[in-house]
Amino acid sequence: MSDIRYKLHPVSAFINFMKSLKELIIPFIVIFGVNIFRDGGLTAMFTGGWVSLLPLLIGLVVVFFSLIIGIIKWKRFVYWFEDGELRIEYGLFVKKKRYIPFERIQSLNYTEGIFHRPFNLVKVRVETAGSGKAGEAEAELTAIRREDADRIETEMEHAKHHRSTPVVMGPHEAQTEISEEVEVPQKKELKTLYRMSMKELLILATTSGGIGVVISAVAVFLSQFSELIPYESIYEEVMLFLRFGYLIVALAVFAGLLIAWIISVILTLLANYQFTIQVDEDHIFITRGLLEKKKISVPFKRIQGIKVSRNPLRELFGYATVTVESAGGSMGGKDEKIRLFPLVKTGRMLSVLEELFPEMEFQPTLVKAPKRSVHFYYRLDFLWMLPLIGVVSYFFFPYGLLSLLIVPPVIGMGIWQHRTTGYALTGKQLTMEFRGISKHTFFVWKKRVQAVNVLQTYFQRRRDLASIQATIKSGMLGYVARINYMEKEDASRILDWYHPVPIQSKQKGQPE
């Protein structure tokens, strides 16, 4: 292995500096906001002597030290290849070392931010099956040249195709090893299977539901300044505004929601621009993004299952979202699920999935839930709804009787869930379909299932019904698919399918 020590690009120092400023922006806004809104505002700050400028001076010192820290982190960060490992040395005040065997590396994920592209650089996230916290990479190279990123892949392939063959000597001779170099395959060509069209991207953006994320982000941001917000003045303004009438208030709320929706559409367009799926013999490569271009690799051997989801609106127009349940790896820096298709037409989705996973059946005939189990799907809802309806009807009579209008939709939702629920066993594959509001179809190989559980309540036992759940390894916590109120015989059939061959049978020479 090479003993050359490689450094990050100098842009890393600036990126580290910007990360520090991002973490300091809330304290800065709070500190300077207090000084701006006090008596005299900015004028008093600049005319009140050096004492009034003290917060500004402290801020400048903090910014200067953040820049120095960013430079020190860049200078102390080095990496090299040795003994089949990627070795990293880093640290601000305390020198740290991290050795990552190439055999443990599951994928190298690339990100091109706005500071990377002008210099043809990439950020490399090293993902392993044992990465620490949720969404946290084993290691991160903030900014390196593309050829350096390719060098890491080459060294990794070289290590995985290099083996040592032990040679057994006589009883009084030392055992030695002969290192055998296996030819390292050339860089594999990527085959493009799917590229999201602009029509699909626009439909994804307008139906993504990201408005809730935008509103939550605004709420979290405002919560940081709760002490500075003049609630009494705002309350008086709101009460004055309400005098204009409910129509004006409704229009104002609609305008606010519309602005939040537009922001969510823009963010979704930027995040999924030019979404592309490519593949080689061992990996699926997903590329997306405009301002920040991301490329992740998903090893086939780490894929545990596939989930196809359809919300009612997308289901009506024949669109679906496909998620890969992977043991290790995430989409970006968070513990996001890896979306193989953020949005795709069902027919186009099936053709790509069949090419990616030819051994899987994506249109099996499902065994549906029995008719006698339909009332189980809405019975529990009535346990808490009926007392609430009774209280509302009694205290707000006669208008409280309008709460009875919620009963038909609840029954209709239960019937809808009942008609969706089903499963299929096709060889070594389990398919489970179920619905909350969105419909989910879950495909998994038998060898990937970690556990199968059969659950029965007292009332289910009386009707010979059971709920079945299958667990696979996915991310940090795993994923559980569950179908409710199936025939007890169906639960036994799935257990028999999953149950391993007894050891005694293997000893008698029976096939596995």
From TrEMBL:
Keywords: Membrane, Transmembrane, Transmembrane helix. Residues 74-154, 274-339, 419-498 form the YdbS-like PH domain. InterPro entries: UCP026631 (IPR014529), YdbS-like_PH (IPR005182). The chain crosses the membrane at residues 21-38, 50-72, 201-224, 244-270, 382-407. This is PH domain-containing protein. It comes from Metaplanococcus flavidus. The lineage of its organism: Bacteria, Bacillati, Bacillota, Bacilli, Bacillales.
